[in-house]
Amino acid sequence: MIRGKKLVVVMPAYNAARTLLRTHEEVMDQGIVDQVILVDDCSTDDTAALARTLPDTIVHVHERNRGYGGNQKSCYRLALEQGADIVVMIHPDYQYTPLLLPAMASIIANGLYPCALGSRILGGRAMGQGMPAWKYVANRFLTLFSNVLMGAKLSEYHTGYRAFSREVLETLDLEPDSEDFVFDNQMLAQIIWHGFTIAEVTCPAKYFVEASSINFRRSVRYGFGCLATALTFRLARLGLVKSPLFPAAP
Known about the structure:
With 250 residues, the protein is α/β, with parallel strands linked by helices. The chain has helices spanning 17-29, 47-51, 67-81, 101-109, 133-150, 166-171, 183-193, 216-237, and strands at residues 7-13, 35-40, 57-61, 86-89, 115-119, 162-165, 198-202.
């Protein structure tokens, strides 16, 4: 626990057997995590079997592959069912360091912000740490576009390292969100829509063979999805369209 609040780490997993042990060990080494929930999205390797051997870990396996967004929906539902006060998502592929868990969680536990992101961009070292140039350029463009249309000032919308208060997760309706990668972008847009503030923490990232990544074709589809999300947000704010992602105020 941290400041009397139950901290649950969720791991959306797909074929993560090679990096899971290392990630889980560092997560638990922080000494503040009450429980880990790993949702296996119908992996073809030993991810689920390995996860079941780990202490303080709940394993949920999808009967069919639901996609990255569908995996996260299960993660957050299960975390709330377990009574989590703070939920941190970290990928089990060891791309993001668990050493930042205390910083991310304390921001929420101390009531400073209800949401915190680990930003690869803030430190100015993303490309130096291995982010491909085309991904960096796309990241900066999509972030600028989203900030302008949604009235925010985030350094990036595309990190997979995120922490949420229970209030945030109970407020958002995630069911209309995509079950693909654009889920990440849609969820942040919903958080902004509901007026929650977002903190960012400089986060180093690793790029190596085992780290999960999407190919160029899916990245393009993701990019267009982000553009559509930001545009829908702006039109909904102006009252020109209705969207289940952005409901009208009661």
